Amino acid sequence: MKCPYCGEHMNRGIIQGGRFSYKWIAEEENQSSLPKLFSKGIKLTDPLMEHGITAFYCADCEKIVIDLKGKRPSYRT
Ligand SMILES: [Zn+2]
Fold first, then answer.
1. 44 CA distance to ligand 1 centroid (A)?
2. Contact by Cβ (8 Å): 39, 30
3. How many structural domains compose the chain?
């Protein structure tokens, strides 16, 4: 994959999951007083899955890009 910022080759890898799911949560949602465990967002990793999510790293831009195809926010219907 080419870096969308500089156009150079990106290194393919994974973001490893831990005991809990990594989630992307919208800022508004993150500021709510509900426990974060129940907040809606995009689940990036699942502790039940062996591998993490595929991500591409650009060493020049120091950025990681994650393809979220098929992973819609859970608050959308
Ligand atoms: Zn780059």
1. 22
2. yes
3. 1
Q: What is the pTM of this model?
A: 0.73
Residue 62 Cα to ligand 1 midpoint, Å, equals 7
Residue 4 lies in a domain: no
Q: Identify the domain containing residue 56 by its residue range.
A: 11-66
The pair of three-digit structure tokens given for residue 17, joined into one six-digit string: 């999951």
Tell me, yes or no, whether 25 lies in a domain.
Answer: yes
DSSP SS3 for 12: strand
Condensed to tens digits (0 to 9), the pLDDT of residues 2-39 reads 999 999 999 999 988 878 888 888 888 777 776 666 66
- Residues in Cβ contact with 20 at an 8 Å cutoff, skipping those fewer than 6 apart: 37, 47
